[in-house]
Amino acid sequence: MSAGGAFGGNRGLRPVPPEKGVFPLDHLHQCDLEKKDYLNCLKSSGHQSEKCRQFSKKYLECRMEKNLMARQDMSELGFRKETETNGETSEEKNSKRIEV
Amino acid sequence: MVGGSYAAVPLYRRFCQATGYGGTIQRRESVEEKIARHAKDGTVTEREIAVQFNADVADGMPWKFTPTQREVRVKPGESALAFYTAENRSSTPITGVSTYNVTPMKAAVYFNKIQCFCFEEQRLLPGEQIDMPVFFYIDPEFETDSRMDDINNIILSYTFFKFSED
After folding, report:
1. Domain spanning B43-165 has what CATH number?
2. Chain B, window 63-92: residues with a beta carbon less than 8 angstroms from a chain A beta carbon
3. How large is the angle between the packed helices A32-44 and A53-65, nearest 10 degrees?
4. Residues B115-143: what's their mean pLDDT?
5. Residue A86 pLDDT > 70, yes or no?
């Protein structure tokens, strides 16, 4: 196997393009507020991503709203639905009925 | 097999993930497919990894380029967001393009960028400052790989090169 190139030579793995492509730049700073909220949360939570998930979700939702990111369901990006009883979607209610 | 540099990466990953050197070649699972699979399996991860950030510009590139946060602490399987800030300090519009690197090298195979600002030209006007997000995900399989036992930090480094000046 011509392994020299495949195993990256002196820099290790060759860079791989991002899976969903490139984020357009937010030249108009439309999502600055959401970004600041997320970064402030990180600063006050010991930089733990888990503690600031709702802010990163809001940031990405902002991008989707302003056409700075392709729209898709947030659960596909790893944002699981919160387990709140008053925020259940009808889908969840139906699946519970089926399980019973 | 002979192939371009990008073609070599899927081969390397398949080899490292022990799908069998002589085995059938499968399409590499996308990050979204991984997320769905682990959600379905109820995968739980415990180890917290500190992802830290480096930013560089190539010689002659008149941008200020820095990580916006010092680190993001994340568990494998949690998608996470981080930012870099770039500012064009020159008096002409400049287009840059960036590439990245992940260290330690042995962890790089588990570091997935879902979306970021790299690999395409980005143009900043004179004096313009902009925040550049990176949305990433560390594969949960990182936790079950004993070679990763001694890794608690991953460093993501970006370098901006001048693509053109207009």
Report:
1. 2.60.370.10
2. 68-75, 77-81, 83
3. 170
4. 91
5. no
